[in-house]
Amino acid sequence: MITVRLFGMTKSLAGNQDSLSLALTNGRQVKDLVELLDAGYPMIGELIHKKKVLVSVNQEIAHEETEILDGDELALLPPFAGGTPW
Amino acid sequence: MITVRLFGMTKSLAGNQDSLSLALTNGRQVKDLVELLDAGYPMIGELIHKKKVLVSVNQEIAHEETEILDGDELALLPPFAGGTPW
Amino acid sequence: MPTDDAQFVRVQREDFSVDAEINLVRGRSKRIGGISIFLGTARDRSKGREVVSITFDHYEGMAQRKLREIRERAMKDFDIIEVAILHRYGEIGIGDNIVLIVVGAEHRAEAFRACQWAIDELKRITPIWKLEYTPEGEVWVEEHP
Amino acid sequence: MPTDDAQFVRVQREDFSVDAEINLVRGRSKRIGGISIFLGTARDRSKGREVVSITFDHYEGMAQRKLREIRERAMKDFDIIEVAILHRYGEIGIGDNIVLIVVGAEHRAEAFRACQWAIDELKRITPIWKLEYTPEGEVWVEEHP
User: Fold this and answer.
1) What's the CATH superfamily of A2-77?
2) Residues of D in contact with C117 (CB under 8 A)
3) Residue D4: helix, strand or coil by DSSP?
4) ipTM value
5) A·D CB contacts under 8 A
6) b/e string for C72-101 if b means 16 or more Cβ within 10 A?
7) The domain that contains D124 carries what CATH number?
8) Domain residue spans in chain B?
9) From CA D19, how far away is CA D39, in angstroms rounded?
10) Nearest C-alpha of chain B: how many angstroms from D3?
């Protein structure tokens, strides 16, 4: 099982959960995680495909081929909106 | 008699007086005032000729031909140094 | 050199005092002569919508790391002496403080440049999200400049 | 429109609080979202000379008039909401506050632009003079940028 932290709109799209626990069995890369999300949370999956939501591994923005190791810290990052919008 | 307010280095050059009282008898323009200063305070006169010190009449920067009327507020303004120099 | 990150870079729920942060920055060197500050506050409108209040969510740990990175890059890339960066999270009322950047330099031009760069970079790379409460409901704000 | 000059433009001997001036500016409108601030402080060196303290002299009346003029032009020429400008006179110790400009705007880019313009213009047209005390004696500082 891996845990993926959720923020902003991805939290809303997952029923206001702070994180998802997923069984990552068919591979160990970010693209495998995205496949699981496509199946279980298609709206989140679509945002990832559109690059509106980024995946981070250990607090760094990850790519499709980024490896996921046991104990890694995973998160889904919607577009940042810190500071002021103006 | 007219009174000319002094600031910054012009004050030092006039022996730390805050103002000068001068008898402006031979004309009524800024250039006549400058002539008096040339005679009585040649170092100040030189700074005015070099445009390092400006003459103001009623709080506005004046020119050689600016008229001086009774009751006008006159001042000598060395280069400004407000704010920070950096 | 070791940096006083925890002092100069903070993500906190509480409000802050601009005077206190300025004093922190200016305490670093008597060579400081120009301090450029940016303060972001909560407006009552956003993209034409009325806004009643705002809640900021942040990725604890990564947000601090990105702000530290901005501070370090600012001090390396600009001719400045010190930078403090603060961002609040949680609920923020209209008119209240959101974000503060304080840049101390010998010369004002570099202080202004670094301050503008830091707020732009903060918006670009810091994992912070904003939920706006409007009379019509809540909206997660998406911003891509 | 009548302007609150006396509040927003001051030449004073006393120190000021940046937080208090920010609150004055932001109290003008809930549309303010970006506040750019410039604070000038007394450095310990000037043109290679050590400086022990500084005294500012000003032309009472004309100095205030020029600062009001800067505030009014800033509000006319930039897309901003409010400006406060303060300058201290008298003796000022090293590290202490000299000058403060606070610009509130809807958008941060205009706040930064107006704040930089205002400090440049202040230096250019405001009748204020600076006497620096150094270990070698007193010097009236002449500055032509």
Assistant:
1) Beta-grasp domain (3.10.20.30)
2) none
3) coil
4) 0.92
5) 9
6) eebbeebebbbbbbbbbbeebeebebbbbb
7) 3.90.1170.40
8) 2-77
9) 12
10) 21
Q: Number of folded domains in chain D?
A: 1
- pLDDT digits 0-9 by tens, A9-65: 999 999 999 999 998 887 799 999 999 999 999 999 999 999 999 999 999 999 999
CA D26 to chain C, closest CA, distance in angstroms equals: 7
**Are residues C108 and B84, on separate chains, in Cβ contact within 8 Å?**
yes
How many CB atoms are located within 10 Å of the residue A9 CB?
A: 22
The whole domain housing D80 covers 5-141
If DSSP codes are grouped into helix, strand and coil, which group holds residue C137?
A: strand
pLDDT at C1 over 50: no
Residues of D in contact with C42 (CB under 8 A): 33
Residues paired with B3 in a beta bridge:
B21
- What is the rounded distance in angstroms from the CA atom of residue A27 to the CA atom of residue A36? 11
Closest listed residue to residue C41, CA positions, set C119, C115, C93 = C93
A42/C contact by beta carbon, under 8 A:
no
User: Residue C115 has which token pair?
Assistant: 């301050």
Tell me if B37 sits within 8 A of B44, measured CB to CB.
yes
Instruction: Report the distance separating Cα D48 and Cα A19, nearest Å.
Output: 58
